[in-house]
Write a structure and sequence with these properties.
This protein is an alpha/beta fold. About 30% of the residues lie in helices and about 15% in strands. The protein contains 14 helices and twelve strands. The strands form four sheets. It has a five-stranded parallel beta sheet.
């Protein structure tokens, strides 16, 4: 049986998914003729499949049409090429992030942030996209049909059985499929990186607000109907100050085609970070900064801790030091990417951070006990945090982060200088 000739091309974004596709070299059924991270020469020959990672823009149309002309199959690996992904949040400030399908015909989608390479191989072998289980069907938390009493921004850290939505913390698991990262296993609500319904953002928003049916909503009378939503802050708008980042984190570029009217901050990543809730910021930073995301997320955490006077425990600092060692290994690996060494990095991240987007890493400590770590959980668990407006600064050998947070917990100013 002849090998499938495959070309991997990273478009725009963090390139984490492209790192995962280095593993294609080890599959006997694949002949990897080109990969963006390896600098392989591409002689524009006919190929069986082009696998795309990262988000698209209109500037990519000609290149994408060329891939479409020379490939029997176009496969998208990751949520960014599928829906625009988390980088679509920059469209609020005038960016032009697009799903690849807005520009060319696509044959297969493997969503996830990032997904597993095994899912891709299975999809290529079968010739169709693999259907994943609904996330809620795999969750151990229990949902109760009851109205919310309040909307919160962090879960109850000692409650591992109550549905996040019942707690008052929005979770998009109801409109999502199971993914490789499983943030819910680390006391972190789903933000929908693998949507399994059309219009998953509006669906998640409608579902959650239906649970808030007994909370106060500002309305005003009109001449043509009984009432409509008003302009004054109410329990709903105060409880969800970042609707876009909460419910449309991975689908904004797919669900809304017009650019937002907010002014740009001058950079793609800062456009994404500005306007987000501080409680959600570490995971967002870990995601969008890709191979430097470990360092940026930790430095962001420490900048806010410095600002509000939080002192992490000695064991928390020790574990963060281990994470920075992983970051240093990854930074060195950028010079000569290697799939086996990257797999070791991913394994280490799962040990010390839960998953690749650091879902277990948080302000003052960690959300759930770490596996294969000798310390007792009390030594590095999250301490009580007094969330408040503050400005802070921190730096390490990889980056320098400055942040300003308002009294609603929204990031108003963001600066990250990579080194």
């Amino acid at each position: 049986m002849s090998k499938m000739k495959v070309l991997v091309r990273q478009l725009n974004g963090c390139n984490r998914c492209a790192w995962h596709l280095l593993a294609l070299e080890s599959f006997d059924s694949i002949s990897l003729i080109g990969h963006s991270l390896l600098g392989n020469n591409d002689n524009n020959e006919r190929v069986d499949a082009v696998i795309l990672t990262g988000f698209a823009t209109r500037k990519d149309r000609e290149m994408l049409e060329g891939f479409r002309d020379r490939a029997d199959l176009i496969a998208l690996f990751g949520t960014c090429p599928y829906t625009g992904g988390i980088f679509g949040l920059a469209n609020q400030r005038g960016a032009s992030v697009l799903p690849v399908e807005d520009l060319i015909k696509v044959d297969m989608n493997i969503a996830g942030c990032p997904p597993g390479v095994g899912t891709l191989i299975e999809t290529l072998t079968k010739g169709t996209s693999t259907l994943m289980s609904p996330l809620c069907s795999t969750c151990n938390r229990e949902f109760q049909k009851q109205y919310l009493k309040e909307i919160i921004h962090t879960p109850s850290w000692d409650d591992s059985t109550t549905c996040f939505n019942n707690q008052g913390l929005p979770c998009s698991g109801v409109v999502s499929a199971e993914c490789a990262q499983r943030c819910i296993d680390f006391n972190t609500p789903c933000r929908g990186c693998v949507p399994n319904v059309n219009d998953s953002g509006p669906g998640a928003l409608g579902y959650f607000t239906s649970l808030a049916g007994q909370m106060d909503v500002d309305t005003k009378a009109t001449e043509w109907t009984t009432d409509m939503l008003g302009d004054k802050p109410d329990e709903i708008t105060k409880g969800i100050p970042d609707v876009v980042g909460t419910f449309f984190r991975y689908t904004l570029a797919h669900d809304f085609k017009r650019a937002g009217r907010l002014p740009t901050t001058g950079g793609l990543c800062s456009d994404i970070m500005t306007g987000r809730l501080i409680q959600e910021a570490p995971q967002i930073a870990a995601t969008i900064y890709g191979s430097r995301g470990i360092s940026v997320a930790l430095t962001l955490i420490e900048a806010y801790e410095n600002a509000i006077g939080v002192e992490p425990s000695e064991k928390t600092r020790e574990i963060r030091s281990e994470l920075r060692k992983i970051q240093a290994t990854w930074t060195k690996l950028e010079r000569k990417p290697d799939s086996k060494r990257f797999a070791e990095i991913v394994k280490a991240l799962k040990t010390f951070a839960g998953n690749e987007v650091l879902s277990n890493v948080y302000f003052s400590g960690f959300k759930v006990p770490l596996k294969d770590v000798e310390y007792t959980f009390d030594a590095y668990s999250i301490r009580e945090i007094d969330w408040k407006a503050a400005s802070g600064y921190a730096e390490d050998e990889n980056c320098k982060v400055s942040i300003t947070v308002d009294d609603r917990g929204i990031i108003r100013e963001w600066s990250c200088e990579l080194r």
